[in-house]
Amino acid sequence: MNSRSKKPETIAVGAGRMSAEHFGTVNTPVYRTSTILHPTLASLRNEEAARYQYGCLGTPTTESFENAVAEIEGAARTVSVPTGLNAITTAILTVVAAGDHILMVDSVYGPTRRFCNGALKRMGVETTYYDPLIGAGIEALFKPNTKLVFCESPGSLTFEVQDIPAIAEVAHKHGAAVLMDNTWATPVYFNALKHGVDLSIQAATKYIGGHSDVMLGTVSANETYAKRLETFVHDMGLYASGDDCFLALRGLRTLPVRLARHWGNGLKLARWLMERPEVSRILHPAIETDPGNKIWRRDFTGACGLFGVVLKPISEAKLTAFMNGLKHFGMGYSWGGFESLIIPANYVRTVKTFQAEGPVLRIHAGLEDTGDLIADLEAGFDRMEAA
């Protein structure tokens, strides 16, 4: 049976297992090693034949994790790298070289923008930012040296949904690769490669790890880019530790189950917040009134617990009173763990201004009881009113 004919829940449980090679154990053990001994001189010299050559080139632990992610992504090859940001930069640098031009979505994760405007510019790669809602209109921005289009859908902090198939069709017509940060939906709810993406990126720190205790990224490539990706990662000496891959693989086993709870909790919170007088609007693609809902329903099979809230105009003192007394919502970066989080959204736009009536908050709905979470937010609004 082809792996993509199985449901994500089944793939997540069984993919990447190496039980037969490890005395029947369900989980591949953690391998911590630098040196790998070879039985013969011929084996030492024949790098292509040796399954494991050296610690940073892969161990059974990293192989199990990467194979499992590749199967759920429907990819020809997945590599693991130390962080989500490293996965983004690795995917980009796999494709581009000095003198190339890239198209970058304007709603992208902030550190990705910083990489493009800093390190990538110094390397002689030009970046043009585009409106996340441009769709097939992106063709007008292509240059003869455009090598890739980078997507992130929904957009970071503001949650615009991109028309990935339309963008991919244009990009491939021009011989450009399509890269996508798919951390929000994961391959469980959006199969990026099936929708025309060439390199699918995950901050495995978030939902794949799922427990706020690992830093990790993955890049999953189709057949066209698989060897190129693997070669670049090896040339750069990139390596994710066996401990982190073990934890992330453990998280992957329950990813579909946890995502369903995050999705449900997030929707409950979003719908409750929609009725609050302090709220101007909700930024959540799974809400029927959201501008991106039509494409989300067409392309996605679910949502996660991350969404945005645009408040009506308030003073900094009122916002502070709301935030500082929250008991179940922590103020911290990242998301995708079991806990609920909330932060003010500091977004940057250079193509088209994002219109926000008041402060924008990013909320991650964790796995707590929604009644407790709602009570926490309600108490926060009471403090806001009294401030």
From TrEMBL:
The answer to whether keyword Lyase applies is yes
Q: According to its UniProt record, which reaction does this protein catalyse?
A: L,L-cystathionine + H2O = L-homocysteine + pyruvate + NH4(+); an S-substituted L-cysteine + H2O = a thiol + pyruvate + NH4(+)
Q: Which InterPro entries match?
A: Cys/Met-Metab_PyrdxlP-dep_enz (IPR000277), Cys_b_lyase_bac (IPR006233), Cys_met_metab_PP (IPR054542), PyrdxlP-dep_Trfase (IPR015424), PyrdxlP-dep_Trfase_major (IPR015421), PyrdxlP-dep_Trfase_small (IPR015422)
Q: Which UniProt keywords apply?
A: Lyase, Pyridoxal phosphate
Q: Which Gene3D superfamilies match?
A: Aspartate Aminotransferase, domain 1, Type I PLP-dependent aspartate aminotransferase-like (Major domain)
State the needed cofactors, names only: pyridoxal 5'-phosphate
A Pfam family that the UniProt record links to this protein: Cys_Met_Meta_PP
Named in its record, the pathway it takes part in is: Amino-acid biosynthesis; L-methionine biosynthesis via de novo pathway; L-homocysteine from L-cystathionine: step 1/1
Query: Which PROSITE patterns would you find in this protein's record?
Result: CYS_MET_METAB_PP
Tell me the superkingdom of the source.
Bacteria
Homology family: Belongs to the trans-sulfuration enzymes family.
Q: What is the protein named?
A: Cystathionine beta-lyase
What organism does the record attribute this protein to? Rhizomicrobium electricum
Q: Which gene encodes it?
A: metC
